[in-house]
Amino acid sequence: MLDQLRKVWRWLIAGGLLVLLGVVDYLGKWGILSWVWKLIRSSLGLIADYWSVLVLVIFVVSMLVIWRKVRFLEEYVGVSFKDDFKQGLKKNWAYHGKWELVHGGELSVTQSEIGGITSVGHLWRDYRFEFTAIIVHDRIGWIVRAQDLFNYYMIQLTPTMVRPHLRLGGKWILLSENPHSLSISLNQPIVVRTDVRGLEARIYVNGKEVYYNNELFSIKFLRFPSSDESVKELQVGPLQSNVIVVPAFTTGRVGFRLSGPEHGRFSQCRVRPL
């Protein structure tokens, strides 16, 4: 069988060579072959005469390609972002729920259970996330160190409390509730600043620090009960049953999340490196 295949292969090669010779002979009789050779020779002559121009064109095109890739890398890695909410949302944000631009420079967010995060910033590490906000109803929530829309840290601010959460695999873990002494009213503009550096987070409202935790982004030990009981954070090692270890989120994007009737408006959104 193998010998027969070899014979067939030889006949195919021989037939292919005969066809190639026939095509070359046909092209030669009609003068097409000589015209092709003339075209090749003239092209080579042009390249020889204008080789410096060709090299310059190749260099310019290569620099443009490299510049474009560097710009993309800067957007992906570099900590620099701003949005005045005047040019639409699809370019800068990936979001679910009711996100709308209002008044030509404000973002209204409500009924956004999953939330929304920036399109860039996967590798942002130490940064300052700052924006102006208005609590329209109940509270506002914003996101830092987002891996995706199902894994991130979310901070809620009410007129009386600061409430950091961890969203892990779509489940919510309330990490703490911290009262603040500020006088915050509904429909009152406030400036919110969140500094994330290493494992720590600091939150300022109108220039006053309202929250600090030097281990917010540390490794977590979480117990997932078999019943519908809430997921709980533990202060013990991962040797107990139903306990998983959550790695520290050391990089990630920013965003906003307001569930159900919670409603807030945001403007002058900025991210800067620390």
Could you give a quick summary of the protein structure above?
The protein has 274 residues and is an alpha+beta fold. The chain has helices at 2-29, 32-49, 51-77; strands spanning 81-83, 93-95, 98-102, 106-118, 127-137, 140-148, 151-157, 161-168, 171-174, 178-179, 189-197, 200-205, 208-213, 220-223, 232-234, 243-246, 253-273. Strands 1, 2, 3, 4, 5, 6, 7, 8, 9, 10, 11, 12, 13 and 17 form a 14-stranded antiparallel β-sheet that branches. It has a 3-stranded antiparallel β-sheet with strand order 15-14-16, with no helix packed on it.
Describe the structure.
The protein is an alpha+beta fold. The protein folds into two domains: 2-77, no CATH class; 81-273, Exo-inulinase, domain 1 (Jelly Rolls, Sandwich), CATH 2.60.120. 27% of the residues lie in helices and 43% in strands. It contains three helices and 17 strands. It has helices at 2-29, 32-49, 51-77; strands spanning 81-83, 93-95, 98-102, 106-118, 127-137, 140-148, 151-157, 161-168, 171-174, 178-179, 189-197, 200-205, 208-213, 220-223, 232-234, 243-246, 253-273. The strands form two sheets. Strands 1, 2, 3, 4, 5, 6, 7, 8, 9, 10, 11, 12, 13 and 17 form a 14-stranded antiparallel β-sheet that branches. It has a three-stranded antiparallel β-sheet with strand order 15-14-16, with no helix packed on it. It is elongated, with a radius of gyration of 31 Å. 22% of the residues are buried. The model is unreliable at 233-238 (pLDDT under 50).
